[in-house]
C-alpha cells in the first residue's frame, strides 16, 4: 500500500487548521473547524482504504483478486452523514445565538399572552378529566344517555316524535304536510 504524500499533507493541514479554528470561542469558527476536521477524516479513511481495484459487486469470478475492500467506502459514507448531521445542528445553534443577540436586552423572554387570566377563568375554560371520562364512557356504552328531545343523532330518530315536535328538522322520508 502506497499512500500519496500529497493526500497525507492535505489531510494533516486540514486537521491542523480545523483544530486551530475550533479552539476559538465563536460558534461560526467552531462550525468551520468541524467541517475541516470532518473532511480530513474522510481523507484519512480514503488513504487507509488501500490500492484501487474492481468494485465488489460480483464475486466468484477471476477478478476477485483485484477487488477492493468495501468497508472503508462504507465508513466514509457514514462519516459524511454524521458530519452533515452535526453541521446542521451547529448551524441551528449559530442561528439561535444570532437571533438571541439581535433581541438585545429582551433576550429570550417573550410577553405572556395568558398573563391576564385568573385561576377561575382557566377552570371555566378547561373541563376536568372526570367530565371527559364520563363522556367517553357514555359514548362507548351505546346506551340511551341522550336527551329524548335531541334529534341531532340520526340513530335516535323516531318517526313518532315528529307528530309532537314541530321544531324538529325535516328528515328524508318524512311526508308531514304541516311543515
From TrEMBL:
Q: How does it sit in the membrane?
A: Multi-pass membrane protein
> What EC class does the entry list?
oxidoreductase
Chief location category: membrane
Query: Any stretches that span the bilayer, and where are they?
Result: 6-23, 30-48, 74-95
Does Transferase show up as a keyword for this record? no
Report the sequence similarity comment from the record.
Belongs to the CPA3 antiporters (TC 2.A.63) subunit C family.
Which PANTHER family does the record cross-reference, listed alphabetically?
Answer: ANTIPORTER SUBUNIT MNHC2-RELATED (PTHR34583:SF2)
Q: What is this protein called?
A: NADH-quinone oxidoreductase subunit K
Amino acid at each position: 500500500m502506497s499512500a500519496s504524500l500529497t493526500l497525507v499533507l492535505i489531510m494533516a493541514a486540514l486537521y491542523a487548521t480545523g483544530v486551530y479554528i475550533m479552539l476559538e470561542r465563536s460558534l461560526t469558527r467552531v462550525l468551520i473547524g468541524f467541517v475541516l476536521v470532518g473532511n480530513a477524516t474522510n481523507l484519512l479513511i480514503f488513504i487507509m482504504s488501500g490500492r484501487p481495484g474492481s468494485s465488489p459487486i460480483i464475486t466468484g469470478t477471476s477478478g476477485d483478486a483485484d477487488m477492493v475492500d468495501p468497508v472503508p467506502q462504507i465508513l466514509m459514507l457514514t462519516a459524511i452523514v454524521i458530519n452533515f448531521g452535526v453541521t446542521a445542528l451547529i448551524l441551528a445553534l449559530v442561528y439561535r445565538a444570532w437571533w438571541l443577540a439581535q433581541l438585545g436586552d429582551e433576550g429570550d423572554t417573550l410577553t405572556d399572552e395568558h398573563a391576564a387570566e385568573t385561576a377561575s377563568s382557566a377552570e371555566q375554560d378547561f373541563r376536568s378529566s372526570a367530565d371527559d371520562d364520563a363522556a367517553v364512557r357514555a359514548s362507548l356504552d351505546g346506551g340511551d344517555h341522550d336527551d329524548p328531545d335531541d334529534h341531532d343523532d340520526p340513530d335516535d330518530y323516531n318517526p313518532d316524535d315528529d307528530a309532537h315536535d314541530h321544531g324538529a328538522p325535516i328528515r328524508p322520508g318524512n311526508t308531514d304536510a304541516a311543515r
